[in-house]
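Researcher: Here's a chain I'd like modeled. Treat it as a single chain, no partners, no ligands.
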Amino acid sequence: MPSSVVTPDDIAAAATRIHPLITTTPLELTDALGPGIAVKAEHLQRTRSFKIRGALNRLLMLTEGQ
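Model: Modeled as a single isolated chain. Structure tokens:
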């Protein structure tokens, strides 16, 4: 079971694990929400959500017995 404290190394490891399997989504500037506001276009993922990142990372961390 992973530790309850997420470290920068944990984040880097997760990014490395999931990178080949996810779509890199753009960061889009929009004035609709105010000047200088950017929106991450996670709706462009296959699942239409950012949730694939956490779920995929957890699945990839499972051992064969799990």
